[in-house]
């Protein structure tokens, strides 16, 4: 009575076994043995369903509905023996209620930040590594969706909202974010350097900031209202225009055009 065998038996009884199915879109996060169909998983009997999902490597930012025996269930549910659990991917386009849609990108997503700004999307970006706690705190303070490829960062409870960026290629990253959140596009209205808003500028008011060749060649300018940077349709404009046109086209043409 009460010996080691009895204690082991009691622990075993209290560890329910569930049948788990993970959506195809989320299978890259889980161990290879759980990527095909339904698999058995033994839990500890006390952890919530949200914790169980995260322990498998799936950030909750990427999870849509959680179905237990076919019924939608909260992340706080504690799984019971024999339950069938289906982990669904977040539905796209994803709506983020409670604040205007705006983003915060970590230090590794600088190119994506500049491309979002080029499209007029509010995208704050930390060009230096300020640390996970500070990023999460800024996400909460400014109500920004934190974009990152760091699953640990996305698991921080302080985040207001977050999303995993699936690709390491800027073109695919941009396509992913636009497809997931469907932000309103307003190309050529934000500073790609600081995220400030642009305004039209008379040539005479910005001439002292221009090199001689630029002064002689161009007459139409815009200036950032935050950092003062001056913009014109220079040598790289055609390449940037191609990025803008592709994004607007893939977004169904829903954009306010400027410039």
TrEMBL record:
Organism for this UniProt entry: Streptomyces rimosus subsp. rimosus
Domain (Mut7-C RNAse) ranges: 102-243
Source superkingdom: Bacteria
Protein name according to UniProt: Mut7-C ubiquitin/RNAse domain-containing protein
Classification of source organism: Bacteria, Bacillati, Actinomycetota, Actinomycetes, Kitasatosporales
Pfam families according to UniProt: Mut7-C (PF01927), Ub-Mut7C (PF14451)
Annotated Ubiquitin Mut7-C domain residues: 17-94
